[in-house]
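ESCALATION

Customer reports they have been waiting on this structure for their group meeting. Please prioritize. Original submission:
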Amino acid sequence: MLPLRISEIFYSIQGEGMLAGVPSVFVRLTGCNLRCDWCDTPYASWKPEGEDQFLGQILADVRRNMASHVVVTGGEPMIHVGIVELTKKLKELEQHITIETAGTAFEPVACDLMSISPKLANSTPTRREGGRWAAQHDRLRYQPDVLRQLMAAYPYQLKFVVRQPETWPKSGRSFRRSAGIASVCC
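Update from on-call: job pushed to the front of the queue and completed.
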């Protein structure tokens, strides 16, 4: 197996979603197919940093942290060639696996919770770096077929970054209609 580009592996407390408060090991892959304007991990997307690590190294780091929950995040973990094998091996370690994804790519991973954060129009980088990523980002940021596939295949939660609360009702209705979701809870 080829190595995976790892930005960081660290132990922390999950701070978002239905598993907030759960001690977890975070495996952050570097590289992303999007360039969100407000990205909080530019070292894993805008300017990817990290080291190539083989699966054995990654698994040893996860075991060393003594947590039963692993969060595979990025960047965008679902675009990495080795993501299926990584999650399979994590499952063999009896880990609860959460994958944090923008929902733009599907792979048949081992996953207990798919934490999907679809990117709304407010994520498009129209000013950052002169807007050079805007067209690609807009073309890739919303993939309703992939979202439906992920939601059908895995237990999931949806997370949204809403820049201005007054835009959510319109964005939420539009998202629910196109993704075929009956409702989205706060």
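Sent to customer with the following note: The helical segments are 55-64, 83-92, 134-140, 144-153, 168-179.
Escalation resolved.
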